[in-house]
Backbone:
């Protein structure tokens, strides 16, 4: 103990169970985030150890009365004074759990080894997963029970953009998660991660080594301290929307990478069966007036009226279900020849055309109330207007030519590139995939295998204000996903713009650098005042992590990634930075 | 303590009213020499301001002490009440290492005394304080005499500190020298209640610039050398503001005292205080002020000391 002694508990002010200060020894120092332990002899109880983390370091000339005394002491030397250095400690734990404050004058020691584990509750975590490195270079853990739904679920990451911290951290976390089957436990092998690439093409190189990796000092050591080999993601599949106006040749709409990127699209059949029409109306204004009424009616009608077309597996036609064999609705196996169809629905424009026949007859006759749900004609017009707009923006995602469903089971990590899409189309894709994922789990009712969804710019999909199908679904995932094994890793620049229901359900909260005004908001109330003040100074690669198992937020760093995050970082084929590694 | 011995003694009471109540008194005034015949020819007949010379003395120690009356006592004697006081003093030195450009406090010493009037022989009970109270007595019966006794104890302690630090430092004492041995020490006196110099010589004091001094002079019967030093020009001050009188032991050779006088004229202005920070500026020297602050702190919290005193007296009564 005395070897690690750095100072004594300050006795000139009250110590509390939450906070106290340490007067440092002449030859010692404590910096922010250092971990310490104090042993206090408590009457009738015995020794109680108080563990804490340094939240502020301070120094003053004791004896200086006026500010100008500083010159007299330091420059002229004519005034006797003592330099006193202190550090402020936020208590993380008392062991045994007797909530008394540390005694003044007690020795304060650095917490190392087993004491460090105790200070960070690592000894109590049943499934500790490294989530970064502490100031001392040793791993800091998160209790996976609080992510995978056993005791809590979801993760929320905040931070200003441009520093690339949010996505980088999310990927780092995924790498740790997918590399730790022994911690994840049963179902680890089938762990599925769905990642949306919303900006640039940063995430399209996760499977490629980063040639700058070795130039980053300490990165290799850091990964080794975390117990993970510095390698790119071993199991990733990339999906991108088809490029528009590419004729019959379907190529992925990506800029830098084509090879290994598969094209995704939905057939009109899937569009109708999965109620994807809903996600064409995700704008906040779409929830106003009576548009949801007519939309719901149209979805219902489409399901009854849609019938297969001979020789075109993904396409459908609309025909009165009264003509169906059962006289009520068409089954999935019913087919009609293409020649009999009024309109063969092979894409979104043709679907809109087919709907117009019922909603806005050419002959000027009144629209069929079975389709319009008796909304005002103006609402019907507004509905069609929006559908036209959607058709222009995301029409190319609906194609009957082939089944290009995203196969989330093909790899551990599925990256869906939506950065090239219009915002409405992005919401459509996110909505469709979240629905699919969630529904799959709802149907099985099983928590395992876990399904992790990484979504940046969460404020776009689940904004604080307004309502919409996407927001409803994200709230649903946040509230019920935990028990179904659907876990959301949401990222946003400003947590204050995200629906509170989504944030509140995240058991693990992480922030990178924050705008100073943002850091003062109630959404960051889990941070200590000192951490908030620091949040605007955090460097890339440094995050504040809060988890239910530890009562104070911890500052951790995560190492430079061994996978490429830009085309320029991709190591040449001939050059293998991992040569020599076994 | 044996019960029998207590019986023979009068009971001591700690009074409830403020210990500082009573005649304010500066016993140092008594130490200032009376106006007498002054010899101004010790150093030179040429009575003009002389520039200070900084000989780069590496260490200067400023010696001072502070004291406090902790409680007033009353001895309940059949012949009538006898007064007493409990007092604490702290002495020490602020050592200025000019080469290392830093200062520290050294030779701190705390003394606690119970002073009884009328030559009484009672012993004050043991008080749970470190250091404990020693008991002394004075034939005086007036309250000022009690304080004077305490003050003398403090002055003696200051003298010990001065002798100790003089081994490796040039000593400047706050107030008149309490000379135990002829060491190269200088006393710095802030206030000027008596004018020693003849009027025409006083004009030289007024003419002093900062870092200048008068030639040496001696006051008869007071076996010390004296000289005046101007520390600073005070804005709006009179001719004597910013002046201190220094004195050195009369047992030192004159040549040595001249060297000390030159040194003080150069060095004292360096540690003069600023008027906006200290009402006694510039004469209240910065190291002295800091030292006094620390010494006051070291005497202990007065409320706690007072409580300990009452407790001790109460315990003895109960036993």
Residues:
């Amino acid at each position: 103990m005395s070897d690690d002694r750095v100072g004594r508990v300050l006795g000139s002010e009250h110590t509390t169970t939450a906070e106290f200060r340490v007067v440092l020894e002449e030859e010692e120092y404590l910096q922010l985030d250092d971990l310490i332990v104090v042993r206090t002899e408590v009457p009738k109880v015995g020794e109680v150890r108080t563990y804490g983390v340094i939240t502020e370091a301070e120094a003053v000339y004791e004896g200086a009365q006026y500010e100008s005394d500083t010159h007299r002491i330091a420059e002229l030397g004519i005034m006797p004074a003592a330099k006193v250095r202190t550090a402020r400690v936020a208590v993380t734990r008392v062991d045994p759990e007797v909530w008394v404050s540390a005694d003044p004058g007690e020795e304060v020691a650095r917490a190392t080894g087993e004491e460090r584990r105790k200070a960070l509750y690592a000894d109590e975590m049943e499934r500790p997963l490294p989530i970064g490195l502490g100031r001392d270079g040793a791993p800091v853990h998160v209790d996976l029970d609080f992510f995978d739904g056993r005791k809590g679920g979801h993760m929320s990451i905040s931070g200003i953009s441009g520093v690339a911290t949010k996505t980088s951290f999310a990927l780092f976390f995924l790498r740790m998660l997918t590399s730790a089957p022994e911690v994840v436990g049963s179902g680890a092998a089938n762990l599925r991660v769905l990642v949306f690439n919303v900006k640039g093409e940063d995430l399209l190189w996760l499977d490629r080594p980063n040639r700058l990796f070795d130039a980053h000092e300490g990165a290799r050591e850091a990964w080794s301290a975390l117990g993970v080999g510095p390698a790119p993601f071993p199991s990733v599949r990339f999906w991108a929307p088809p490029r528009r106006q590419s004729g019959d040749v379907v190529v992925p709409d990506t800029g830098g990478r084509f090879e290994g990127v598969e094209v995704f699209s939905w057939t009109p059949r899937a569009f109708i069966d999965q109620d994807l029409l809903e996600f064409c109306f995700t704008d906040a204004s779409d929830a106003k007036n009576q548009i949801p009424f007519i939309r719901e009616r149209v979805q219902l009608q489409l399901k009854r009226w849609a019938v297969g077309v001979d020789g075109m597996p993904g396409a459908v036609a609309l025909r009165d279900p009264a003509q169906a064999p059962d006289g009520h609705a068409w089954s999935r196996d019913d087919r009609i020849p293409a020649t009999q169809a009024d309109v063969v629905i092979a894409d979104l424009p043709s679907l809109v055309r087919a709907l117009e026949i019922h909603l806005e007859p050419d002959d000027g006759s009144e629209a069929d109330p079975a389709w319009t749900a008796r909304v005002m004609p103006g609402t019907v017009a507004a509905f069609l207007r929006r559908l036209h707009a959607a058709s222009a923006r995301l029409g190319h995602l609906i194609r009957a030519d082939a089944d290009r469903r995203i196969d989330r089971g093909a790899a551990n990590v599925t990256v869906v590139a939506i950065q090239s899409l219009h915002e409405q189309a992005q919401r459509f894709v996110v909505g469709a995939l979240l629905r699919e994922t969630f529904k799959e789990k709802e149907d099985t009712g099983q928590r395992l295998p876990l399904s992790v969804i990484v979504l940046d710019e969460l404020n776009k999909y689940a904004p604080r204000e307004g309502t919409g199908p996407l927001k409803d679904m994200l709230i649903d995932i946040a509230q019920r996903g935990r028990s179904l094994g659907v876990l959301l890793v949401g990222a946003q620049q400003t947590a204050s713009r995200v629906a509170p229901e989504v944030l509140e359900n995240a058991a693990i909260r992480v922030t990178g650098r924050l705008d100073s005004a943002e850091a003062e908001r109630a959404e960051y109330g889990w941070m200590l005042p000192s951490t908030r003040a620091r949040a605007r100074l955090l460097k890339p690669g440094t995050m504040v992590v809060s988890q239910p198992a530890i009562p104070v937020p911890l500052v951790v760093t995560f190492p430079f990634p061994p996978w490429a995050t830009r085309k320029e970082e991709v190591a040449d084929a001939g050059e293998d930075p991992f040569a020599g590694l076994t | 303590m044996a019960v029998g011995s207590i019986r023979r003694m009068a009971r001591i009471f700690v009074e409830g009213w403020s210990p500082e109540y009573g005649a304010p008194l500066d016993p140092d005034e008594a130490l200032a020499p009376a106006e007498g015949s002054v010899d101004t020819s010790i150093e030179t007949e040429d009575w003009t301001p002389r520039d200070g010379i900084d000989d780069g003395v590496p260490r200067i120690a400023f010696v001072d002490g502070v004291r406090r009356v902790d409680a007033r006592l009353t001895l309940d004697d059949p012949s009538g009440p006898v007064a007493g006081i409990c007092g604490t003093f702290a002495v020490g030195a602020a050592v200025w290492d000019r080469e290392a450009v830093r200062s520290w406090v050294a030779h701190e010493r705390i003394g606690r005394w119970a002073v009884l009037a009328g030559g009484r022989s009672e012993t004050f009970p043991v008080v749970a304080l470190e250091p404990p109270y020693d008991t002394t007595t004075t034939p005086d019966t007036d309250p000022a005499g009690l304080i004077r006794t305490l003050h003398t104890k403090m002055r003696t302690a200051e003298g010990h500190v001065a002798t100790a630090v003089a081994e490796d430092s040039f000593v400047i004492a706050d107030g008149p020298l309490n000379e135990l041995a002829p060491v190269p020490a200088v006393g710095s006196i802030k206030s000027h209640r008596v004018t020693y110099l003849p009027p025409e010589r006083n004009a030289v004091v007024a003419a002093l610039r900062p870092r200048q001094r008068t030639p040496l002079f001696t006051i008869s019967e007071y076996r010390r050398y004296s000289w005046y030093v101007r520390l600073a020009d005070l804005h709006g001050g009179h001719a004597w503001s910013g002046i201190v009188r220094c004195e050195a032991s009369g047992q030192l050779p004159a040549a040595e005292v001249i060297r000390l006088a030159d040194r003080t004229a150069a060095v004292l202005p360096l540690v003069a205080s600023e008027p906006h920070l200290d009402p006694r500026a510039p004469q209240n020297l910065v190291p002295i002020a800091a030292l006094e602050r620390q010494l006051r702190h070291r005497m202990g919290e007065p409320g706690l000391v007072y409580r300990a005193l009452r407790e001790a007296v109460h315990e003895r009564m109960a036993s």
User: Anything to note?
Assistant: The radius of gyration of chain B is 22 Å. The mean pLDDT of chain B is 86. The helical segments of chain B are 3-7, 27-31, 143-165, 199-207, 254-267, 286-298, 302-318.
